[in-house]
Structures are given as structure tokens and as C-alpha cells.
Amino acid sequence: MIYQNFICVIVLLGLFSFGEFRKLPSFITPCRQNDPALNDCIVQQFEKIRPQLKKGIPEFDLPSMDPLNLPTVTMNHGNGAAVSFKADFTNLIVTGASDVIVKKVDLDLNKLKLKVHVYFPKLRIESDYKISGKILVLPINGDGHSDGNFTNIETKMVVSGDYEMRDGKRYIVINDKKVSLVIGDSKLYFANLFNGNKELSESTNQLINENSKDIVQEITPLVEETIGELVHKIVNQVFNIFPVDELLLPN
User: Which of 131, 132, 135 is nearest to 81 (CA)?
Assistant: First the structure.
């Protein structure tokens, strides 16, 4: 769930790189379909747009991404080697997303496939939480404030689709998405575990952080699935509104 903020970056990437569908901001130079360096053009345009992420971009109907507010995320992870729990996270506040770096883009217009590799130097996610289950050998339960700090996050994503004709214009319909990610390091803290039992709470938080790599590895598939579903919904909505020749300037 901590990586959902990067989804907004992917949508933004698609919007500005695919061309002049509205009146573009003055700092954007639209890319063209026949540009042999199209992928490099997309990366270059993102570098122009990155400084605007903190305040938001009205032309794209995008609010500020830093901080980024998310309403709720639910996780239900069972029978894992390291973790087995159900957790609800609400009122999430994500900071650090505006420092995202797009390392590589590969857009194939014939196969309608977009591959993106992005890097987050650091992300901090604060939220209210409610959790019950097991982490490693210990039962865990509680509700309160959580604070997660994550560094060196490498995220790769593949989105593919098909063309659809409507009113004589071509639209893109997203039909598949895949997300994979690797976290360099993490530090987690859950306040008020075990109904405020300070000794149990501190020892459990210590155990969580001593084994954070194993715990993050267990929940990664759930995070990837969540990101994929959100991307499908958001990107499909964008492509449903705008014809492809408006999103990507013709030759």
C-alpha cells in the first residue's frame, strides 16, 4: 500500500508524454509519434514536470503529490512465513513522492505496451491503523498511529492495451498491468500496540524492524496487486476520455 503514490506518477507520465490533449503548460514540449528518441523525450519532459509535483498541475487536474493523501488501504495477508494479519490503514499521508526519478521508459505503439522504471529515494507514510494477527512468532493487535520510512524503492511497471474505435477515432483500452518493486530499507513504528502496553509495544516494534526485510517481502505481492488495480482504473479512465491521436501527436 505504501507505493500507491507512484501510480499518480505513471498517470502523469502518460498524460504529458502522449501529447497535447488540452492546452499544455508552458514548460511542456509535446512528444511525437515518429520521434526516434520518443522514450528519451518522455523522460526529458518528466524532468521538466517534476518540480511542479508538490503544488499540483491544474492543466492535468492533478492535485499536489507531496504530501499525497490516501483515504484507506486494507490488507488481509494469511499464512505467510513471516506475517499473517489483517490491517486497515486510514488517513494516509505520503511524503517524498515528488522526488521520484524516472530511470527508463519503453513505449511500443504497435504492441500498445508501456514499460516504466521509476525510483523513489525516500517515502514516508503516516496513517491511523488497526491490526490483528501474527508477525513472525508473536501475535499482534492494536490501533493507533503508524509511521513508515522507506528508502531506495525501485519500481517497474508494464501496462498494455488494445485499440478501440469510437465515432471514427481510436481510443486505448487498458487490459493488463504488472507491477514489481524492490525496497532498499525500511523502518516501521506502530504506536499503541496491545492496548497501550508500553513494554510489549516497544519490543514488538523492535522485532518488526530487526526483521523488516522479511516482513516487507511477505507483503510485497499484495502491494503490487493493489497498485495494479488502481493503475488499471485510473489509466483506463484517462484513455477512455481522450482519443490516442490527441494524447500522442501524429507524425
Answer: 135
Q: Where are the domains of the chain?
A: 5-247
pTM check: above 0.85: no
Contact 105, 129 (CB under 8 A): no
- The CATH homologous superfamily for domain 5-247 is TULIP domain (3.15.10.30)
Q: What is the pLDDT along the chain (251 residues), one digit of tens a residue?
A: 444 445 555 555 554 444 444 566 788 777 888 889 989 988 888 888 788 878 877 776 667 778 877 778 787 776 665 678 888 888 888 888 888 888 998 989 889 898 988 888 988 889 999 998 888 777 888 999 999 888 898 888 898 989 999 989 888 888 888 888 888 888 889 999 988 888 888 998 998 888 888 777 776 765 666 556 656 655 666 677 767 777 778 87
CB atoms within 10 A of CB 16: 25
